[in-house]
Amino acid sequence: MTTYTSARRPPARRPVWLVVLLTGVGMVVLFAVGFGVSLLVAGEDERPTVVAGEEDPSVAGDAIGNDDGTTGSNNVEPEPCETTLISAAEVLPRPDGVIVNVYNSTKRAGLAGTTARELSQIGFRINKVENDPLGVSLRGVGEIRFGPKGVDNARLLLFYVPDAVMVEDDRSGPRVDLSIGRGFEGLQPEGTVAAALASPSPSLSGPGCSVE
Prior knowledge:
alpha/beta; five-stranded mixed β-sheet; 18% strand; rod-shaped
């Protein structure tokens, strides 16, 4: 009787090319995953850091780049600027609050004295009445001389001598001078002056008004 002994077949080995292929695929997958993670991290780092109390520039909206070169919201309401009617009588002083020196720059004797009396009757307070101390001979109606504190006083006097030349100097007080020239023919009638003082003129008023 013959006995057969079965021999065990050795396990099959995977081909080398398959091992190499699987290894390569695994490396590609790992690289892709790592690259994707790095992109996500980099994207978070590129977002601007917002300090507490500051506005995120990504939501600042129209706070940057206004047409006038300033920053701030374009929706801010402009400050008001209104046109109102104001008469000179409302802003200028009364004649009894104005001190005037009356000078004669012509050869017509008594001209300064006559004019000073008329101004006094209107209400002006007369100080000096004499020949022009500057020694000039004015061809026109005359000059109204004043300092920085006498601007409104000079403007009031100009209503009575409308063709006089306004001359500002460096005097410290509010007193004004009226130097009469050869072209002077008399003061404006009080009725004419009163009407001019009461006539309203437009004036801009409000925080939004620009000053030229």
